[in-house]
Every structure is written in structure tokens, then in C-alpha cells.
Amino acid sequence: MPPVTKNLIIVNVIIWAAMALFPHEIGVMMDRHCGLHYFLSHDFLFTQFISYQFVHSGFSHLFFNMFALFMFGMTIESIMGPKRFITYYLICGIGAGLIQMGVNAIEYHQIAQHLTNAELQTVLNEGTHIFNRGLNYTDPMMGSLNYLINIPTVGASGSIYGILLAFGVFFPNRPIYIMFIPYPIKAKWVVVGYAAIELFLGVGHANTNIAHFAHLGGMIFGLLLILYWKKTGVIRKNDTYF
Questions:
Q1: Over 60: is that where the pLDDT of 242 sits?
Q2: Residues in CB range of 206: below 8 A, 6 or more apart
Q3: Closest CA to 217 of 145, 152, 165, 172
Q4: DSSP assignment, residue 206?
Q5: Please, are residues 2 and 75 in contact by the beta-carbon 8 Å criterion?
């Protein structure tokens, strides 16, 4: 297994295990300080654009992300080389966080327009402290806004979707078997299909516990980075065109 892929899996598993073994100490601390918060939250830090990529909400969340990293990351790392691969991985994750932050900003303004200025300032000034005590406002609009501001985004999914995008770009016609589908599908159509599903679910607000637009953000930033590297001729580890 290539070094970056291997070490990313190891680090993510260690962090998840520590959070699972010590949920009230390490778990709470990691969610609060390392999960990506909306920028108006008192818990927001710029470093969270990196750190949130290494925090997962549960075993299934970790397993599927790491399984995809194992399946596709090894191939992409062998093409890009370790340094460029970790750069690609982190930028896809950062891009996913930025897109999710933008979506949250839209939702913030949609909710905020239903609140008075006094109610809005109350949420902004006191909401984080209340949320961290496991409480929230009884007013549905104030509660929704406080939840939006202070609930952290976690997981490597944005980076994983970026890796899937890269696989579809490099090997568009390679067949991929997907669970419950008995026939192989070309990688390029798998990428298009996943992007369409995430867009549909994101616009439809299906399962709000999943950051669908963050997944799309990882793909978008991955594509932009690949196109830039292609233009400059430094996409492969030996600095040649792909």
C-alpha cells in the first residue's frame, strides 16, 4: 500500500478509536475543536478546514470512507506520487468544507429573516454556550439557526469524492462493480451518477445529517485541480502530461 494512503487510514482509525473509547473526553473535544463549524460559531477555527477531515461520526462513516480510500486511493497515489496525492486529498477536503460553508450561509440567511434582530443577536452571542451544554432554544427558528451554526461537519467524504472523481478522469472506461448492481459500470458514469445523486439529495434536503454539497465540493475542487495540473503538465509523479 502506498505510504500516504496507508498513513491516512491509520491516522483516521486511531482518531476514531480514541473518540470511541473516550467519548466524553476525547470525543467531545474532537467534535468541538476539530469538527468544521460555521464561521459565526464561537467554536470556529480556520484549522478546522483541515482537522475536520480526520474526525468521523461513527464506525460506518469511518469504514465506508476508508474502504473507498483503500480501493481508489492506492491507484491515484501511484499516479500522482505521495506529495501531490496528499496535496490533492487535503485540497479536496478544504474545498468540500468551503462549499458546505457557502450552503450553510444560504440556509443561515433563510432562517435569520424570520427572526428579530434581538433574537438573532441572542443566538449569536449565547447559542454556542447553550449548544455545548446539550441544550437549545424552544423557539423553532432560533433552535434551527443555533443548530446550523454550531453543529460540526466531520469526515473525509469530500476528499474521498475527490479521489473518486480523479479515478473517473484517469480511468473513464474502467469497469466498477457497485453493491447490489450485478453488472459493471464504467468509472466515468459512476462519477456522473454519484454527482447527480448528491445534487438531487442536496437540493431536496434529504437526510440533513449528510453534507451532500460537501461531497460535490470535493469533486468540484478535485476537477479544478486536475485541470490546472493538466494545463501545467505536472499531473503525474514524473511531472509529465496525463
A1: no
A2: 200, 212
A3: 165
A4: -
A5: no
How is residue 175 annotated by DSSP? E
| Cβ contacts of 200 within 8 Å, gap of 6 or more | 206
What pLDDT does 185 receive? 85
Question: How do residues 81-99 score in pLDDT, each as one tens digit?
Answer: 999 999 999 999 999 999 9
Encoded amino acid at 75, one letter = T
| Residue of 54, 157, 34 lying closest to 99 (CA atoms) | 157
Per-residue pLDDT for 165 more than 90?
yes
CB-based contacts of 125, cutoff 8 Å, min separation 6? none
Q: Of 88, 93, 97, which Cα lies nearest the Cα of 170?
A: 88
Supply the DSSP symbol for 52.
Answer: G
Which domains does the chain show, CATH number per domain? Answer: 3-232 (1.20.1540.10)
Half-sphere CA count of 97, side-chain side, radius 13 A: 29
